[in-house]
Structure to design on (595 residues):
């Protein structure tokens, strides 16, 4: 480790003192710490920028495998249902990760100020990686120092913007830029996903979603699949079931209640789809932690 | 890095960006770099609202009857346009006087102060000028600003410079001169009223002015007005006006080659002898000799005129 890498690691280690997620005073920043490896699980990967200082997490989308590890950072403009596992971590050297919630507005504002190339060659997905350089690492360290020293949010917000700028200028900048300009296909998909995410309950049809984003139904399908590797209906279903699982596991909601909260009208249909996705019926998650 | 190492880096970058004496206006809005490789004669000018962070050398300022001395790792805050006389007192070829100047954008400061969580101070009005020690964080932010100049990438400057500028102001608002910045931010404060009066004086210093009108424009009672005007500028309105007139006259004679009587008349003196008398008292020499001396003077001094 270089001195800078070591400082980043030490700060993350300090701020995420207990297993789990430490939420900094800045509401959009989390420090993640996991001290043991695990088996593959279906998870919700939120829209964020992720910087790892130690350990490794494998993330599988429908089509690809990504290593969330030091030396690269990971950008997810759109929250994704994924399969993931911690593949490298121990008590002594836990998996440590800085997560910054993805805020497209910051990028849009910046992309408007500077000349940006949009990646049109490859099929840009909603999960991609860039390589960390010292400038980026330096900004991350400064962000953690600000949090550590209890400085005010204003200062943290400035550094977050700086990080966003460096990400936009990095080797994955053109992929990110594909989401930043209104009118581009991926920007429209981003908006549609946002619509689905903010209101899981409402059952908008694909035709309605396509119409709202100003795309033909076939284009909408095509680009939705390009970004997320799944269809809009699959995407919504997975998000619903993951959210229901969280409600049952963390909030101890009754199964029927959880099903209703995420938009299912039939509890039996919910149980059936839940079991198919997670391999066990929803009730088992309620019992498991008791 | 400790503060000495940071400072050393700052000095290096400074020398790269600003290789000769004078004021160097950078590509970054509101940021200029000042350098003087030798001590200077006293220089009189109207200082605009700005923060001057000294990185090497020493400087002495006279405002009204007050003398301020400051040096490396100290910063000067000037909150209103104010006539000052200043000189660099410590500087050499190897260790030139270096100063990072940031002009104050009132809107930015208001935005920062109003953004909820910066602590608000309710102390009484202070002098419009102050000197304090710079914190390590402040110098670090200055360093990053200078790094932007070094890379000279227009896009980086466009996006990152405003962020660093805000950070610099943030640290200043956390510093000892916070009160001055809060006064700048609060639109309705007495400082603002005095600033308005100063602006009126600046616009019309060549004419005779009606003091009662000036006071009336600030919505203050004459007693309060005089007290605060003096507190902020260290001068009475008449002294202030006189300084502006004499400095303008000096500029006319030196830069535009206007003859002495005309210059005096132009800035509002009806009697040439009174003009010469007051000029001599203010600049130490009668106009003809003073301008001769200026012509021989340092490029730094000329740059400041």
């Amino acid at each position: 480790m270089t001195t800078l890498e070591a400082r980043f690691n030490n700060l993350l280690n300090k701020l995420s003192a207990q297993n789990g997620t430490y939420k900094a005073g800045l509401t959009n920043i989390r420090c993640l710490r996991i001290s043991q490896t695990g088996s593959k699980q279906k998870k919700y990967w939120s829209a964020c920028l992720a910087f790892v200082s130690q350990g490794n997490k494998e993330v599988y989308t429908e089509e690809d495998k990504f290593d969330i590890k030091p030396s690269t950072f990971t950008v997810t403009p759109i929250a994704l249902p994924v399969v993931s596992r911690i593949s490298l971590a121990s008590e002594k050297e836990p998996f440590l990760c800085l997560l910054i919630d993805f805020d497209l507005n910051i990028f849009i504002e910046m992309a408007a100020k500077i000349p940006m190339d949009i990646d049109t060659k490859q099929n840009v997905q909603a999960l991609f990686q860039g390589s960390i350089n010292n400038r980026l690492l330096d900004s991350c360290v400064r962000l953690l120092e600000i949090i550590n020293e209890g400085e005010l949010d204003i200062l943290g917000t400035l550094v977050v913007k700086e990080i966003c700028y460096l990400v936009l200028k990095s080797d994955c900048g053109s992929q990110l830029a594909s989401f930043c300009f209104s009118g581009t296909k991926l920007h429209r998909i981003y908006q549609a996903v946002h619509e689905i995410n903010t209101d899981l309950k409402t059952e908008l049809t694909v035709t309605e979603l396509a119409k709202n984003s100003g795309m033909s139904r076939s284009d909408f399908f095509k680009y939705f699949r390009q970004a997320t590797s799944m269809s809009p209906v699959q995407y919504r279903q997975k998000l619903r079931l993951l959210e229901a699982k969280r409600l049952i596991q963390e909030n101890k909601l009754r199964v029927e209640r959880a099903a209703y909260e995420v938009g299912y009208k039939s509890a039996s249909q919910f149980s059936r789809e839940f079991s198919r996705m997670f391999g066990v019926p929803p009730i088992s998650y309620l019992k498991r932690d008791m | 890095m400790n503060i000495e190492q940071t400072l050393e880096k700052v000095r290096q970058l400074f020398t790269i960006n600003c290789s000769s004496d004078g004021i160097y206006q950078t590509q970054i809005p509101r940021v200029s770099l000042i350098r003087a490789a030798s001590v200077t004669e006293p220089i009189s000018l109207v200082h605009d609202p700005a923060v001057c962070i000294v990185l090497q050398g020493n400087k002495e300022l006279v405002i009204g009857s007050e003398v301020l001395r400051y040096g490396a790792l100290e910063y000067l805050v000037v909150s209103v346009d104010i006539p000052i006389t200043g000189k660099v007192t410590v500087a050499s070829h190897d260790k030139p006087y270096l100063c990072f100047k940031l002009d104050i954008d009132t809107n930015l400061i208001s935005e920062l102060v109003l953004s909820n969580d910066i602590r608000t101070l309710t102390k009484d009005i202070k002098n419009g000028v102050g000197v304090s020690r710079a914190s390590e964080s402040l110098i670090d932010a200055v360093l990053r600003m200078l790094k932007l100049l070094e890379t000279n990438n227009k896009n980086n400057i466009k996006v990152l410079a405003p962020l660093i500028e805000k950070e610099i102001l943030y640290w200043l608002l956390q510093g000892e001169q916070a009160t001055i910045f809060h006064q700048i931010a609060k639109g309705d404060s007495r400082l603002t009223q005095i600033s308005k009066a100063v602006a009126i004086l600046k616009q019309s210093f060549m004419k005779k002015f009606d003091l009662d009108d000036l006071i009336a424009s600030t919505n203050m009672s004459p007693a309060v007005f005089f007290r605060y005007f003096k507190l902020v500028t260290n001068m009475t309105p008449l002294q202030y006006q006189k300084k502006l007139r004499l400095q303008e006259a000096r500029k006319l004679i030196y830069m535009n080659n206007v003859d002495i009587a005309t210059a005096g008349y132009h800035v509002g003196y009806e009697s040439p002898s009174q003009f010469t008398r007051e000029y001599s008292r203010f600049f130490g020499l009668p106009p003809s000799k003073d301008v001769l001396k200026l012509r021989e003077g340092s490029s730094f001094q000329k740059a400041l005129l």
In short: Chain A has a mean pLDDT of 90. Residues 80 and 155 of chain A are 30 Å apart (CA to CA).
